Amino acid sequence: MSKVLGIGPRVRRLEAAHRPRRALVALLFAGLIGGGACLAPHRAELRPGEPASAVGSSNSGLKPRAASVPEQGVASSKVRTYGEVVFPNDPSVINVRTEFHAKGDGKTDDTEALQKALEAGSGNPTRVVYIPNGTYRLTRALIVKSTLGPWLYGQSREGVVLRLDDGVSDVTSVLRTHPNESGDTSSDWFMRNIRNLTIDVGNNPKVDGIRYYATNSGIIQNVTVRGNGNIGINSSFLGQSGPNMMQDVLVEGFEKGIVASWVYGQTLSRITVKNCRKQAVAVEANAVAIEDLTVVDTPVAIAITIPNDWGHWAGVVALVGGHFSTKVPSGPAILNAGELYARDVHTEGYSAVVDSSEESPGAKGPDVIEYLSSAVFNLFDEGPKSSLGLRIATEPNVPWETDTQKWVSANDFGAIAGDDQDDTAAFQKAIDSAAKSGKSTVYFRGVGGPDPNGYTFKNQVFVRGSVRHILGLGFGRILGEAPGAGFVVTDDSAPVVKFQGIDAFGGDPITLENRSRSRTLVVESSGVAILGTGTGDIFATDVPGRVRLMQKGQHMWARHLNLEGHSDTGLALNQGADLWVLGTKSEGKGVRYRTTSGGRTEIFGAFEYTNEPIDDKDRRPMFAVKDAWLSIAGIREICHNGQPYVVKLREERDDDVRELDKVREPGWTAWPLYNGAPR
Q1: Cα–Cα dist 136/319, whole Å
Q2: Distant-in-sequence, close-in-space partners of 502: CB < 8 Å, separation ≥ 6
C-alpha cells in the first residue's frame, strides 16, 4: 500500500500564456515553494474527523490519534438512490407526450417533438420539460438554444431512453447544450439541468453522447450515457465551459468517457466509466474535483495533460476515492503531467497507480492512501503534512413525492412573479396549508421575460411539519429584498428539508438558514446564501452562492460551490464549523474562503478566476485562516487580463501572521496540497 507525497520544490518554466479563441496574454514567472518528503499516515490512525499529521512528529501540535474506522475520512461508499419522478398537471410542466405528442415507442421519430419541448421549456415563462418512461427515437441532435435552462427531467433513469439511430450522418452528439458547434461564445449559459434518463448513442463511432456546455450552475445527475460512440460527455467542444457538475453518472462504451478540457472548474461526484477504448477521464487546462470514481476495463482511468506545452495550463486533479480495475493487463491507471492529489485509491490489473512526469514521483500501488505530485505546502514548518481527513457524507435521500395530491402551489396562495410585492406571506400560507394536511411538496412556477420578473421576499418563511421539498419549476427566481429574507429550517421542520431550483440570478439572493439543532438542510441547483446558525447538517450540491457557518458543531458538505463577487470578510465564512467542499470556483476580488475560531475547512479541487487585475495595494487574501484548520487539495489560479492575487494565502496563529504572496508565488499558480492549522 503506497503512501507517497511529492518530493522537492515545484518548478515551472517561464512562458507566455496564450488561450485559443481569446486575445489574452499573461506571463508566468518561475516560482518555488518549500517542503520536503514525508509519509502520509494510514487513515486508521485518525481520530474521527480530526486533521491528519505526520505520525510521530513532535512539531505537529496535534495529539496522537486513536483508531476509528467509521470516521476516518475515506471517500463515502454510500450510493444515493433515486426513485421515479412525477409532476402535477400544472402550466409550469411540459409533458412531452401530451403537449408535443412524442410517442416514446422506439419506432416513431420523436426528434421534432423533443426539440420543440426543449425550446418551449426555456421560453416565457420557463417550464420543466418532463419525459415519461419510454424509448424515444432520434435521428438528429437535440440542441438547447437558450441561455437559461433546460430543466429536463426523465421519469426514471432506466425507463427513459433517448436513442440515436445507428449510422447517422452529420450528427456530432445526441444532446448539445449550446446552439453552436464551434466558434467564439460567452460564459453566459446557465442552469443546464439534465436528470433521470439514459442517452444511447447507438452505433455511431464519431458521435458524442452529450456535448455539455454550462457555466456557474449546471448538473448532469442520475444519467446513463452509453453506446459505441466517440466521447460520452464532452465538456470541451467549444474550448471553454464551466464550472459545472456531473453526479451519479454511468458512461459506457466510448473512445473516451469524460473529456474535461478548457473548463473553468468541474466537479465529478460518484462517476462510473466502463469499457472505454482509451481513457475514462481526460483533464487538460482545468481543475477537476473527483469523488468516488469507478473505472472498469478501460486502459487509462485518468489522463492529466498539458496543452501545447503551456505548463501553466496543465490539468489539476483532486481525487478522493477511486476504484480502477481491468481484466486486460494494462499500464498505469493514472497518467499525470500536471498537478495531482489522490487519496484512497484501489487498483486491480494496472501496472501502477500513478505514472507522473519526470519532475514528480509515481506510485506503484496497487493501493494508494495519499499521493501528491509535488510537495505539501505549509506556511508554518510544523503544519500538517497530510490532508485534513474530515468525514465525508453523501447527500441524504429526500423521497420525490409521487402522489401529486400532496403537492401544493405557492401561486395558488397569492405568490405572483414580477409584481414587486412581498411574496413571503403567500409562501408561508402554502407551507402551513401543506403541513396542516400532511403534504410534502411546495412548488412555485418558473419565470421568464425581462425584469421585473421574479418573486420578492422581504421577510422570513418558516418550514414546518411534513413539508420536505420546496422547488421552482423552471427558472425559480426569488429576490431577497431585506437582510436575512428567505426560508428558515428549525426544530419544527421535517427531519430533512430540500430546496431546489431557486435562484436570484443577478439580484440579491434569499437566505436559506438552518437554525435547528438536528434537522438537515439540503440545497440543490440553487443560487442562494446559505446560513448555519444551529448544529443541524447542511448539504449543498450545484450551488452558486455564499456560505456563512456560525456555530461550532455544525457540519456542511458542498459539491460544486460557485462563489462570485467581492468580499473583505469571505464569500465562504466558517466560524467554528466543519466545511467540506468538493469542487469550487470563484470569480472576483477579495477573500474567497475564511476559516476562524477553530473551524475546519477541507477543499478538493479549486478553480480561482480573477476576472480583472488585482492592484498591488489590494492585499486581501484568496484564502484566510486564523487559529483554525484549512486544507486545499488541487488548486488552479488564473487571471487572463493582468495580475492575479497579490496574496494567495494568509495564515494566522495567535499573533504570528504569514502569507504566500506574489513574491514567493508569482503569476498563475497551482499546487496539489496546502495545509494550515492552529498552534
Answers
A1: 36
A2: 470, 471, 472, 476, 477, 478, 510, 526, 527, 528
Amino acid occupying residue 235: S
Cell numbers standing for residue 251? 458512461
Residue with cell 467581492: 566
DSSP symbol at 45: G
CA 178 to chain centre: 20
The separation between CA 500 and the C-alpha centre of its own chain, rounded to angstroms, equals 15
- Does pTM surpass 0.85? yes
* Euclidean distance between CA atoms 636 and 608, whole angstroms: 6
Please count the CA atoms within 13 angstroms of the CA of 202 that sit on its side-chain side: 22
User: Phi and psi dihedrals of 404, rounded to 5?
Assistant: -65, -10
The string of DSSP letters for 322-361 reads EEEEEEEEES-SEEESSEEEEEEEEEEEES-SEEE-TTS-
Pairing of strands 339-350, 367-372: antiparallel
Q: Which long-range contacts (CB under 8 A, 24 or more apart) does 533-538 make?
A: 536/489, 537/393, 538/514
Q: What is the largest CA-CA distance in the chain?
A: 73
Q: pLDDT for 669-678, tens place per residue?
A: 899 999 999 9
Q: Amino acid identity of 265?
A: G
Give residue-wise pLDDT tens across range 176-210: 999 999 988 888 999 999 999 999 999 999 999 99
Judge contact between 377 and 340, C-beta under 8 A: no
